[in-house]
Design a protein that fits this description.
Number of helices: 11
Low-confidence stretches: 65-69
Structural class: alpha/beta
CATH superfamily of the largest domain: ATPase, nucleotide binding domain
Shape: globular
Order of helices and strands: HEEHEHEEHHEHHHEEEEEEHHHE
CATH architecture of the largest domain: 2-Layer Sandwich
Largest sheet: 6 strands, mixed
Strand content: 25-35%
CATH class of the largest domain: Alpha Beta
Mean pLDDT: 83
Helix content: 25-40%
Distance between the termini: 103 Å
CATH topology of the largest domain: Nucleotidyltransferase, domain 5
Length: about 375
């Protein structure tokens, strides 16, 4: 008679054989994890760049284990071919490890790609099941390899660069908003309106680590895209109005010329309405709200004077950016988007003109004046 213990001894090996376990899994060091992807187009060929970080350096910095390395290395790969598929295959063949694209956080496009092959490149990237639609999208006129090789400050891992955290870095004192793949596909394919791809440039000398002056990336404008076609590049100086008409809550500094007063403004949202009835063209009213915090003031200007100057500065920024967009045949504020939803026939009859943004209403509430006393 077979005892209970003997039955278990016979049964356990059989169960183990039926368990699949993790035999096909790969360790973290058995793959090359791509963090950023760059695409260029030159002389009829696609050029693919990849940026990979060493996980050991990231783990030490985020986990607090061990000493921080003297320098966090950046591995940049590059291959070219007449098609994107072949360029990726050539890069995979040249790699010493299998490439894994599920960790991509940044997609960097050259100016040539944005101007010539934007729709094709975004369509190809969007069809890859591993690349997430939350990946941040940037453009650049710089050498893609140089941008990807820029280091973070304090010898931190490359994933601490502005490219990987634009939602935080661009939320203060910046007119350009971060853009991810989902936003680009949604806004870039609309029949009316436009979207802005942030442009990355390299600067040197703004920061100094001991005797070194590292190169750092920063956003200095953007490429205007409508119907997945580029309208061209617009520098940051021409985009100031976007810092006020934004769906994202922002904190922006505004220097008032009166008595060298510096005001921090918290943008609380805006509303665009079409003036009706429409008779001789499209005319829109913009209403925006902001809260003001007085950071610095050499004197004590009257409250009414300060509010008036803040309103005028914001109105000037909004109007100038609107006119700059019209010069490039672009609707930077997407004024026509709601009109297209409600009354598409109007857009077939009328186009945006210089006087289309006919009423800019600004509400300013000063909630904190520090130690200053205002009349």
């Amino acid at each position: 008679m077979i005892t209970r213990e003997l039955k278990l001894i016979i049964l356990l090996p059989s169960i183990c054989l039926m368990l699949s376990g993790c035999w096909g899994s790969r360790g973290i060091s058995d793959q090359l994890y791509i963090e950023a992807l760059g695409v260029d187009y030159k002389d009829g060929k696609y050029i693919v760049y990849t940026e990979s970080a060493i996980f050991s350096s990231i783990a030490k910095q985020e986990g607090g284990g061990g000493s921080q390395p003297s320098e966090s290395p950046v591995l940049v790969g590059k291959e070219d071919a007449e098609s994107l598929t072949m360029a990726f295959r050539k890069l995979e063949k040249a790699s010493q490890y299998p490439l894994y694209y599920g960790h991509i956080q940044v997609i960097l496009l050259s100016e040539r790609v944005i101007n010539q092959k934007l729709k094709e490149v975004i369509s190809h990237i969007g069809h890859d099941p591993l690349i997430r639609y939350t990946s941040w999208v940037f453009g650049t006129s710089e050498d893609l390899s140089a941008v990807l090789k820029t280091k973070s400050l304090f010898n931190q891992a490359p994933t601490y660069k502005v490219l990987y955290h634009p939602d935080i870095m661009l939320s203060r004192n910046h007119a350009v908003n971060p853009l991810n793949m989902q936003m680009l596909l949604r806004g870039g394919n609309e029949p009316y309106g436009s979207i802005l791809i942030p442009n990355v440039a390299i600067t040197e000398g703004e920061w100094q680590e001991d005797e070194k002056k590292p190169s750092t990336p920063h956003v200095n404008g953007g490429f205007i895209v409508s119907k997945m076609k580029s309208k061209g590049f617009m520098p940051y100086e021409d985009l100031h109005g976007l810092q006020w008409l934004t769906e994202q809550q922002k904190e922006n500094k505004l220097e008032i010329t009166h008595e060298e007063t510096v005001v921090e403004l918290l943008v609380k949202g805006y509303k665009i309405t079409l003036q009706e009835p429409v008779k001789d063209g499209l005319h829109y009213t913009v209403q925006l709200k902001t809260k003001a915090y007085i950071d610095e003031s050499a004197d004590e200007p009257s409250l009414s004077t300060l509010k008036k100057k803040i309103k005028q500065e914001i109105k000037n920024d909004v109007q100038r950016t609107f006119e700059n967009g019209l010069e490039m045949d672009a609707d930077l504020y997407n004024l026509t988007e709601s009109t297209y939803r409600k009354s598409p026939s109007l857009l077939k009859k009328y186009k945006l003109q210089g006087d289309s943004l006919s009423d800019i209403q600004v509400e300013v509430v000063i909630v904190n004046a520090g130690s200053q006393k205002y009349k």
